[in-house]
Amino acid sequence: MYTLLVILSITIVLFVWGKFPPDVVALMSMLSLYLTGILDIQETLSGFSNTTVIMIAALFIIGEGLSRTGWTAVAGRYFLDWAKNSVPKLLVIVTLGSSVLSGFVSNTGTVAALLPVTVNAAWNAGTLPSKLLMPVAFGSNTGGLLTLTGTPPNIIASNALVENGLEGFSFFEFSLIGLPLLLISVLYFRYIGFRLLPDHRTKNKPMAIDDEMHKWIKNYSIGDNLYRLRIRSMSQLIGTKVGDWDFEENYNVSLMRLKRRHPNPLQGIPQFVEMPEPDTEMRYHDIITIKGDAADVDNFVLKFHLGVLALNPEMGSLKRELINQEVGMAEMIVTPNSVLVGKTIALGHYLKKMGVQLLAASRNNMPLTGKIKIGAGDAFVIRGQWQNIETLKSVYENLVISGSPEALSKNVDMLTPRSYVALGTLILMIVLLVLNILPGAIAALVCAGIMMLTRCVPISKAYKGISWTSVVMIAAMIPMGLALQKTGVAQMAANGLVAALGNVSPLALLAGIFLLTTAFSQTINNSATAVLMAPIAIMASTTLGVSPKPFMIGVAVSASTAFLTPVGTTTNAMVMPSGGYRFIDYVKVGGPLLLLFFIATLIVVPLIWSF
């Protein structure tokens, strides 16, 4: 027992210290349990086969699918459009919006999607980002309490009940406590928290796709020499392939995009063909987007009997024409040592080895046209698959790609047919869980598989979308919970809580569990906190002879109340640079909210889950 207490104490100290990553600390703790003989090999590695861990990993993939298909960006745009630059409305919308989104998407994904649009909305409304970003972070933490899958502590608490032969929580059962807490959060920030939020000025503005488009239109004139043409019935292009004509070499125009008149995804005929390959077949009534000088385009239209369609040079139209979840744009700067220096290329042509197209160019802040002999310091706007642009950034050391293409790709607020597949997959998972058709882990795995098979999340990106730090940490901390039970430490802690508070009332015991859990959650990852506290809460309730459900709700809620520090959750840390927050700001703003959550939990929980 004493050996376990030493290991547990060292683990907590290392978590709080933050010198080592939390997953590494958890792994060291897990190995210590085996090396000291507290657990055998099966018990030590049991976390990696635990259904909680499998389900959480699958949920990261599902959330990534919703983010990559535009749902989080679209939701963020609508939330902020509703506010109409009113600061009080903005405050309510960002708190409410982040809460609702995080009920279905990971907290981290929610904040990542809302961060750039919230910063821009703050400036447009004449306020500071520091007045809005902390409500986004705290709102995402609260929103995780709306559904079973909203945050890992919910799943951990539910599975702890199941493992002890009790009934777990249903999918929307957490909303019975989550909705009152959400209402409290919104009212708090609207009437009290806004006055406590600091006025910090910061230059840390995250990249937003709309801002980048405005910049490119102004600096590069990217809408110039861009045309939309329709393939008419007499055109020689009908039935031929793109590679048959070599448009760039023979006609000085570059084919950028093709839109089908009669798309049929089931037959492999998508609505849009971005950056068509040489074997792409052109059909009657297809609409092609090309780039070239006006004279060359006129000759091209006459040669192939094409119809000319209007293309609005405004930002919205260009954005729809040039960017989506698969294809994007970025700014590239050529350094003196680049292999491109001295090469001649026409705008619109492809850098085939790199898989991107040169869309526009600038030298000394002046737009360039026609054929260009590339020099050091030249800046280009490039267009290509987001993945190719990201690869370009990492592979070619002598090219500078501004910003993060990966982050910008998730900031595209447009929906495609694949977006509705992703939404349907989320709805399917909810139905499977609500109706209890499949176990939670299996339902999540099935839906994660659908996300990957339908390419809502490319398989290579699916694994990157999983927060492996969280998954490994939870898996490695589960044996600690087992060790607490096996050695009697959990029972000892439970007896201590019951002796100190149980004689007063079960409500006092609930208060004690809440305060102990929230104390841990301020410095320790909320999942690790839930893993540690779940067995103690169950044993305490069993010792007292009352239902464990209200205490497990208390554990889940209090594990999600890391409002006092920037290190309690990833979301708190994410908003810190852009908001210019200091440590004390979290205490000043989060302290009253934590107190309100504590009081509300003690009032609401016994009314719904009786002792």
UniProtKB/TrEMBL annotation:
Organism: Flagellimonas allohymeniacidonis
UniProt entry keywords in alphabetical sequence: Membrane, Repeat, Transmembrane, Transmembrane helix, Transport
Membrane topology: Multi-pass membrane protein
GO molecular function, one term: monoatomic cation transmembrane transporter activity
All residue ranges annotated as the RCK C-terminal domain in the record: 226-300
Entry annotated with the keyword Transport: yes
Keyword Membrane annotated: yes
One Pfam family cited in the UniProt record for this chain: CitMHS
Residue spans crossing the bilayer: 47-66, 87-105, 171-191, 420-453, 465-484, 496-520, 526-544, 551-569, 589-609
Single GO cellular component term: plasma membrane
PANTHER family in the cross-refs: BASIC AMINO ACID ANTIPORTER YFCC-RELATED (PTHR43652), RESPONSE REGULATOR (PTHR43652:SF1)
InterPro entries noted in UniProt: Cit_transptr-like_dom (IPR004680), DASS-Related_Transporters (IPR051679), Na/sul_symport_CS (IPR031312), RCK_C (IPR006037), RCK_C_sf (IPR036721)
Domain Citrate transporter-like: 12-543
A single GO BP: potassium ion transport
Protein name: SLC13 family permease
Subcellular locations according to the entry: Membrane
